[in-house]
Write a structure and sequence with these properties.
The chain is mainly α and 225 residues long. The chain has one domain. 75% of the residues lie in helices and 0% in strands. It starts with a helix and ends with a helix.
Length: 225
C-alpha cells in the first residue's frame, strides 16, 4: 500500500503543487512522501496485533508465556518485531522515494528526527492493535483494528497542507493528534524544523495512553487463557 500511494503522489496528485496556496519548499513529491512513510510505519505497527491474535488463536502464545519471565515481555516482543519491520519498510520507501525524485533537504540529525517520529508512530499503532488483539484473540477481527488507524491517517493534511482544507475536514485535521506529527515530520525533511517538541510530546503521550490500553488487555487475556 505505501508504494502504491507513493506512485499516486508522484503521478496525478503532483499537480496539486500548482495550487497557489501550496507553499511546501521541497515540492509535492516530498510533501506526500512523508505521509507515505508515516503510513507505512503505522501499518507495520498494526502487524503486531495480527501476530498476537494469531498466536492466541492457535494457542502458541501459551508456550511463550510459560517461557517468558513476565507476560508483558511477550507483548514487548511483538512490538519490537513491528519496529524492525517498520525500519526495513522505511528504508525501502526512502530508497524508492529518492529514486522517484524526493528531495531531502534535511541534515542527518533532522532526518533521524523524522525516522524517530515514524518509529514512535509504529509503537502507537502496535500498542493499539495488540491491545485490540488481546481482547478479541481472533485473527479475522484484526481488520477492525486497522480501520481506525487508516481513518486517523486520512483525516489529516494527507494530500494538501492544512490551510487548504475546509469545512469538516479542516476541523477534523485541527483536532487530530496525528496532524502535529505529520506536519512536524514534513518540516524536518524540508530542513525547516517546526514544533518538533510538540510532535514528540504528542507521540509519547499516545504511547503512554495505549500502553495502559495494552496492559489492561493483557490482564484480560491472561484471565481467559
Amino acid at each position: 500500500m505505501p508504494l502504491l500511494f507513493l506512485a499516486l503522489g508522484g503521478g496525478g496528485l503532483s499537480n496539486l503543487a500548482s495550487v497557489p496556496a501550496f507553499d511546501f519548499p521541497s515540492g509535492y513529491t516530498t510533501f506526500f512522501f512523508v505521509y507515505v512513510l508515516l503510513q507505512g510505519s503505522a501499518f507495520a505497527g498494526a502487524a503486531a496485533g495480527a501476530a498476537a491474535a494469531s498466536d492466541f488463536e492457535t494457542g502458541f502464545v501459551r508456550r511463550l508465556l510459560l517461557a517468558a519471565p513476565h507476560p508483558s515481555s511477550v507483548i514487548a516482543g511483538y512490538i519490537l518485531g513491528s519496529i524492525v519491520l517498520a525500519l526495513v519498510l522505511m528504508f525501502v520507501l526512502t530508497l524508492v522515494g529518492l529514486a522517484v525524485g524526493v528531495a531531502v533537504d534535511a541534515n542527518v540529525l533532522e532526518f533521524a528526527g523524522l525516522y524517530g517520529l515514524a518509529l514512535l508512530l509504529t509503537v502507537v499503532a502496535a500498542l493499539w492493535a495488540t491491545g485490540f488483539a488481546l481482547r478479541t484473540r481472533i485473527t479475522r477481527a484484526q481488520t477492525s483494528a486497522s480501520m481506525p488507524i487508516f481513518l486517523v491517517l486520512m483525516l489529516s493534511p494527507a494530500f494538501v497542507p492544512r490551510a487548504l482544507l475546509s469545512s469538516w475536514l479542516r476541523v477534523a485535521a485541527d483536532y487530530n493528534p496525528y496532524t502535529a506529527i505529520l506536519e512536524s515530520s514534513r518540516s524536518l525533511i524540508s530542513g525547516e524544523p517546526d514544533k518538533i517538541m510538540l510532535a514528540y510530546a504528542v507521540a509519547l503521550g499516545l504511547v503512554a495512553a495505549f500502553s495502559l490500553w495494552t496492559l489492561s488487555g493483557l490482564r484480560q487475556a491472561l484471565r481467559s487463557t
